[in-house]
Amino acid sequence: MYIKCSFLFLQLFTLLIQLFLCKNVKESNDEKCGVPHVKIDFNKRIVGGEPARLHSWPWQARLLKYSSNHSAVDICGGTIISSQYVVTAAHCVWNKEKNKSENASRYLVIAGDHDRLSEWDGETQNVSLEYIEAHPDYNYNSSLNDIAILKLVTDLKFNENVSKCCISSTPPVKNEFCLATGWGVTQKVTESKDFLRQVNLPIISTKLCRSVYFGDKVKSGMFCAGYKRGGKDTCQGDSGGPLVCKRSGVWFLTGITSWGVGCAEPNSPGVYTEVSDYVQWIQSVVKIYKIMQT
Question: What is the DSSP letter of 33?
Fold first, then answer.
C-alpha cells in the first residue's frame, strides 16, 4: 500500500512539474503585444499631428533602402508583429519594372528609434532582411493588396523601446479615432521630420469614401481615414507604417499607410490597407507562436 501511494505521489509530482514547465514555455513565447511602456496622449488636436512621446510606439520600424553609393535612405515605415517579422506596404519594396519585390539585401530595418539624427534617445536595433514576401496578388497600379512581410536576418530583442503590435482581425469602425505614426513629410515641399510624429484620424466608412471621394479606386481590402476639411494626414515617407486602433486598453494594427491624393488636402483622406482582410495570409507567412487578435 505504501509503495502504491508513493508511486501515485510521484506521478502527480511529475505531472505538476510538466504543467509548470509548459506554462513557462507558453509565457516566454507569448510576449505582450500592443501595450507600450510609455503612456500615450492622443487627444490633442494639433493641425498636422504632433511629435510622439519618446518610445511610445515601440512597434514602429524604419525601412531604409541602400542607394547606388551604398548609403541607406529612409523610404517607408513598418510595424513589428513578432521578433522576426515586420509588416509594411508592398509598394515600399516593389520593383515596378520587373513587377516583383526587390532583393532583400537592398533593405535595412531599424527598430527602437525616435530621433533619426541622434543617439540620445537610446540604442536602436539595425537588422538586415532575409527575404521579402509581398502579397501574391499585389497590383502596383491599383494598390490592391498593398501589404508585404519582411523576414529579419536576426531576431529583435524586445525591451522597453522595441516590442510588437497586436494584429486586428476585425474591420475598423466608422468614426472610430485611430492613430497613424511615421517620419514622413509634415507639410508640402518640406523635408521629413527627424522626430517620430503621430496623428489621430477618424475612420470613414467605405461607402462614403467611394461615393464622395475616390469612387471605385477604393478596392476591397482598403479603407479611408481622415478629415473632410483636411489638415491632418499621413504623407510621403509614412507609407508602410501603422495605423493603430485602441481596444480594451490594447493597440491593434488596423491599417497600413498605402496611398492618397496630396497630403492633408480637403476632401482627400488617406487610404489604408485593411489588415483584418489579410490575417490568414499573414499567419501563413509568419507562422508565429501566437498573434493576438480582436
Answer: -
- The residues near 27 (Cβ < 8 Å, ≥ 6 apart) are none
Q: Give me the catalytic one of 82, 135, 146, 238.
A: 146
Q: Which part of the chain is CATH 2.40.10.10?
A: 58-164+280-286, 166-276
Domain at 166-276: CATH code: 2.40.10.10
**Beta pairing class for 60-66 and 270-274:** unpaired
What pTM value is reported for the model? 0.83
Q: For residue 176, is it left (φ>0), alpha (ψ between -120 and 50) or beta? A: beta
Q: Is 146 a catalytic residue?
A: yes
Q: Which pLDDT belongs to residue 77?
A: 95
The verdict on whether 194 is a catalytic residue reads no
The residues that bridge with 198 in the sheet, in sequence order, are: 50, 181
Percent of the chain scoring above 70 in pLDDT: 74
CATH architecture for the domain at 58-164+280-286: Beta Barrel (2.40)
